[in-house]
Design a protein that fits this description.
Layout: H1 16-36, H2 44-72, H3 74-77, H4 83-91, H5 95-108, H6 112-119, H7 125-137, H8 144-152, H9 157-174, E1 188-193, E2 199-204, H10 207-229, H11 240-255, E3 270-277, E4 283-285, E5 298-304, E6 310-313, H12 322-332, E7 347-351, E8 366-370, H13 371-380, E9 383-386, E10 392-395
Parallel strand pairs: 3-5
Antiparallel strand pairs: 1-2, 3-4, 5-6, 7-8, 9-10
Length: 413
């Protein structure tokens, strides 16, 4: 409830125009809450963006109010130790959050471009925090040109976070060493193997590194959500948490890869097929080759004697040559599972007719598949065939062909 106060501690009564403006905003918010329930599915994308921009603008208004509190020193007249504690007392927020807002407001006095962008809803709260921290750390090096560059990257979260990290690295290098680490933002990553062979762990990152990782994962999660919305059955049962984990695995897997025209990471793509000589002198395999690992790897024969000694190391049997890999990449361009556009650097070359069942290592039998779809096809019995024009056709385990209608980015059902 908005009201006008004549308390002398505040100097003058709050202007009636300001009160009226806030009352209009409150009424508009209530109207929006009613309208959201009647919004169509096709309008949700624009609605989410508009709400976020409105929240960003509201955050800047809050900083403006906090800046006014700092200038007026009303907090001192009320006996508070700092503006942040006064704002926390009257706003009902935590002292830490209120102090951070006041600190941002003070720095934004000298950052007109960032202040204007935040008011327009272009800068999120985390981006404003990163910008103000940059200026607070090195005000002499945070020039107008750097501010303009960083603000211009606001719509590209990954590039923005990388640029902020580069600026801070340059500042630390100019100071001749690393600053003392903040105990609350010391980076750590722990992983422990579970009893069933999986991994559990925890990840802690600072603001800048965390923004880089979060933006990279969010980009891949958004792509996976788009694929699920477009009818990709491999993602139907995945939660956002599972998508985040899968996105991290995909990023790590992509880093292990190399350009097939030059080299491959040897440990990632070499599998030994171990064989044993029995008491009758026959060579028999030890265990089975995992189906999910049988494509796009370097498979070699390893024969052991009765006492485990190595008798023979055969040469590779079915690797794709650099010329073949280049030809498949040029032909396909990206993952050829319907509606997937993962780039070649994230893809394997899949044997349409399995190599272990006599399929040749030939470009007419190979197709690009991203790690997720490649693994899914092997585990769930799907298959992909190439027609005479080398166009892929994807079939479910029951033999029916899986096809989806590709939609333009941003379009909703």
């Amino acid at each position: 409830m908005f009201y006008q106060t004549n308390d002398l501690r505040y100097g003058v009564p709050m202007a009636e125009t300001v009160v009226a403006a806030f009352e209009k905003v409150a009424l508009a918010v209530r109207e929006l809450d009613l309208l959201v329930g009647s919004a169509g599915v096709c309008e949700l994308a624009d609605l989410v963006g508009a709400v976020q921009a409105c929240c960003n603008s509201a955050e800047q208004v809050r900083r403006a109010v906090a800046d006014r509190v700092c200038e007026s020193e009303v907090w001192a007249a009320d006996g508070c130790r700092s503006p942040g504690r006064w704002v926390a007392l009257h706003a009902g927020t935590s002292p830490g959050m209120a102090t951070r807002v006041c600190r941002q407001a003070k720095e934004l006095r000298f950052m007109p471009r960032a202040r204007a962008a935040a008011l327009d809803g272009l800068l999120s709260a985390s981006q404003v925090e990163m910008l103000t921290r940059c200026r607070r750390t090195a005000p002499d090096r945070f020039t107008d040109e750097i501010e303009e560059l960083l603000v211009g990257l606001a719509d590209q979260p990954v590039e923005f976070a990388v640029a902020v990290k580069a600026f801070n690295a340059a500042v630390r290098a100019g100071q001749g060493g690393q600053p003392d680490a903040d105990p609350e933002t010391v980076a750590s990553f722990t992983m422990l193997e579970t009893v069933v062979g999986g991994q559990r762990g925890s990840l802690t990152l600072g603001a800048e590194d965390g923004a880089v990782v979060a933006a990279a994962l969010d980009r891949r999660i958004a792509r996976m959500i788009q694929l699920r919305r477009d009818g990709d059955p491999t993602l139907d049962a995945m939660t956002i948490a599972a998508m985040r984990a899968q996105a991290l695995v995909d990023l790590c897997d992509a880093d292990l890869r190399r350009d097939p025209s030059r080299r491959r990471a040897p440990d990632r793509h070499r599998i030994a097929l171990t064989m044993h000589v029995d008491e009758h002198g026959n060579v028999v395999p030890v265990g089975d080759l995992p189906a999910a690992s049988s494509c796009d790897v370097e498979l070699f024969r390893l024969i052991r004697g009765a006492h485990g000694e190595i008798l023979d190391l055969g040469r590779s049997k079915r690797t794709w040559s650099a010329a073949q890999a280049t030809a498949v990449i040029r032909r396909d361009g990206h993952c050829r599972f319907p509606n997937c556009d993962a780039p070649p650097g994230h893809c394997d070359i899949h044997h349409c007719h399995p190599w272990e069942r006599g399929g040749p290592t030939d470009i007419t039998n190979g197709v690009l598949l991203c790690r997720w779809h490649h693994t899914y096809i092997h585990r769930h019995g799907w298959r992909i065939e190439l027609d005479r024009r080398q166009r892929p056709h994807t079939h479910r385990p029951d033999g029916t062909e899986h096809t989806v209608q590709r939609r333009a980015p941003g379009m909703w059902v």
